[in-house]
Amino acid sequence: MIVDTHVHILPDRLRENPGPALADPWFAACHSSPSAILAGPDQLLAAMDQAGVDRAVCFTWPFADPRLCAEGNDWLAGVARRHADRLIGFGCVNPADPGAAAEARRCARLGLRGLGELNADAQGWTLEDDAVLAPLVEACVDTGLPWTLHCSEPVGHEYPGKGTATPERVARLTARHDRLRIIAAHFGGGLPFYAHMPEIRAACRANLWFDTAAQPFLYDAAVYGSLVALVGAERLLLGSDFPLLEVPRYRTAIEATLGPADAAAVLGESASRLLDLA
Fold first, then answer.
1. What is the distance of C-alpha 155 from the center of its chain?
2. Which helix (H) or strand (E) holds 115?
């Protein structure tokens, strides 16, 4: 099974008239290019069929406005129900919103399987503010919803969407909330490279997973072998960041740099176990 754990699709209303979405500063920063693509489920399913992808974990966008998040949750839950054999929905909330915990519980009732891609910089909250985060974390632990958390590397080139959720901050967050399962997007901003440290290695093998989203823009393909050696293939999840990138570019690199068993784990087996996919 090939599972893409990081794709973005948007409701028809926002694709046809993106004005309300473009009012969100982070969305606008990431979609200001004339070549930016806004995808829906039909485009995603066609890309999955072409690339041989069996299942995909879908997000809308980490809007700061809780109303846009809730609208997206309702829409995505319907999409996931219509395509239950292919698409898995992750809801989105703004943790800074006092109603975030209640919305997370509503996401679970709607059949959404997690929250993501949560983004502190985009949504106006901080990874250290436990007074804000604790009710949402409790709701997600109670309902079994993992988070996909936007993470960024603290070095390297600048680009639209690079944030401040860097490895040391993510590590502290996961240590404080060790019952919450977190998929740290974009290789956790490089957090698993620190797994030479015993305490970081233990954290990476406890409640943390890492997706591969944006690898071709950030890291040489040798990153896959390095991280499998450090944290194990069972902690790495294929994530394309569709429609920004598509799966074949990742799959080529993964299969060229890893042995068959490790490649199979990264391409889908690890996600299947984490999300209990049949």
1. 21
2. strand 114-118
Closest alpha carbon to 8 in 119, 109, 132: 119
0.70 exceeded by the pTM? yes
Residue type, 82: R
Reference 217, options 153, 167, 276; nearest CA is: 153
Q: How far apart are CA 75 and CA 104, in angstroms?
A: 15
Q: Are strands 236-237 and 55-59 parallel, antiparallel or unpaired?
A: unpaired
Q: Tokens 């309902």 — which residue?
A: 143
Reading across the β-sheet that carries 208-211, which strands appear in turn? 3-8, 55-59, 87-91, 114-118, 147-149, 182-184, 208-211, 236-237
> Can you tell me whether residue 56 is helix, strand or coil?
strand
Measured distance CA(7)–CA(218) in Å, rounded? 18
| pLDDT for res 44 | 98
Average pLDDT by consecutive 10-residue portion of the chain (278 residues)? 98 93 94 89 98 98 98 98 98 98 98 98 97 97 98 89 93 95 98 94 92 96 97 97 96 98 98 93
CB 102 within 8 A of CB 74: no
Using alpha carbons, select from 105, 192, 167 the residue that is nearest to residue 141: 105
Q: Establish whether the linkage from the previous residue to 260 is cis, with ω within 30° of 0.
A: no
Check: CB of residue 124 under 8 Å from CB of residue 93.
no
Residue 177 contacts residue 133 (beta carbons within 8 Å): yes
Please give the pLDDT value at position 32: 82
